[in-house]
Amino acid sequence: MKMKNCVFHFALFSLNRTFAPMNLNALFEQQLSGRHFSFEVLPPLKGTGTDNLFQTVAMLMELDPLYINITTHHSEYVYTEKGGGLLERHRVRRRPGTIAIAAAIQQKFGIPVIPHVICSGTTIEQTEYELLDLQFLGIEHLLLLRGDKAKDDSRFTATAGGHTHTTDLIRQVQQFNNGIFADGTRMKNPGKPFNFGVACYPEKHEEAPNLEQDMIFLKQKQELGAQYAITQMFFDNQKYYAFVKKAREMGITIPIIPGIKPLSKLSQLTVIPRTFHCDLPQALAAAMMECKNDEEAARLGIEWATRQCRDLYAHGIQNIHFYTTSAVNSVREVVRRLL
Q1: How far apart are CA 130 and CA 294, in angstroms?
Q2: CA 122, CA 93: separation in Å to the nearest integer?
């Protein structure tokens, strides 16, 4: 696809600027007028306050993002001693407040927000209350995900009364969009329906038997109403291009937005592949092993991510999504090099 000439808008912002909700399709149609970025951020850890997060968002706003994506971590297992050498496992929420954080960012910075809504650690009833709260707050866009399995579990186990698969969560959201509660009761005053996207995996989800089956699941999500997909981070663009080509051949037509993360620490040489189940190309891995400290690793990560993005542009990709965890300064530098 031939790249059109694009104009970048390096916009300064003012706090509490007016925000007009925008249809998600309109967000992605903006790619016709220029290249655009979006960013994923994490809610703050419980008890740490919001100052650091808002400072991060303020820095990212200098890059004129299309939207801010906000992760959800409903709960995780922790162990407490019961005495006699016994341990008790229970769930604790480490990063509460995704909905409140999403509303605060949307109001404070005047930018569309897309919070994660996940199956993990929550019930169908709790999900319904999340949807009601999001609707009341005027948040129209969601990213629907299954969520991670518990750290010590060999496979994902749904919470009692919760969903096992993203497709089940999509069905609940669509039923809600149609004005029907989870128990079948019809709403007296249905609100504005949600737009939503899903995740996809150019190197397949860790639990999928193969890439083709994983893509069959993605097509099912499209058929159920998903409007776009954001990829898991990848470091080899050829895997993304092959994934998109195969998706189109299978009838998957929704936008597939590439997710990019600059490496920023030496430890990520092993942590990233193990945690996110994606390979580092040999050239990148070899260069990382030559780095003597995190500063050198971060410089390498910026260079590699910048080359990835420029190659994506050369292939006609206009929207790029960045994972900012532990890499905010690196992401800022990458985007500045692209402007």
Answers
A1: 39
A2: 11
Tokens of 21: 């909700």
**Spatial CA neighbour of 114 closest among 133, 140, 94:** 140
Report the residue count for the chain. 339
Alpha carbon distance, N-terminus to C-terminus of the chain: 21
The listed range with the strongest mean pLDDT (57-66, 87-96, 102-111, 169-178) is 169-178
Q: Enter the tokens of residue 77.
A: 């297992």
Note the pTM of the prediction, 2 decimals: 0.85
| Chain centroid, CA 104 distance in Å | 18
Question: Which phi and psi angles does 30 have, rounded to 5°?
Answer: -65, -20
Contacts of 266 (CB under 8 A, 6+ apart): 288, 291, 293, 294, 297
The whole-angstrom separation of Cα 334 and Cα 339 is 9
What digits encode the pLDDT tens for the residues 44-92?
Answer: 776 677 888 899 999 999 999 999 999 886 655 555 566 555 655 555 5
Long-range contacts of 251-256 (CB under 8 A, 24+ apart): 251/219, 252/215, 252/218, 252/219, 252/222, 253/222, 254/197, 254/222, 254/226, 254/227, 254/228, 254/229, 255/28, 255/227, 255/228, 255/229, 255/319, 256/200, 256/228, 256/229, 256/231
Q: How far apart are CA 257 and CA 1, in angstroms?
A: 16
Cα 329 to Cα 264: distance, rounded to the nearest angstrom: 9
DSSP structure string for 66-125: SEEEE--B--EEEEEEEETTEEEEEEE-SB--HHHHHHHHHHHH---EEEEEESTT--HH
Q: Strand pairing partners for 197?
A: 143
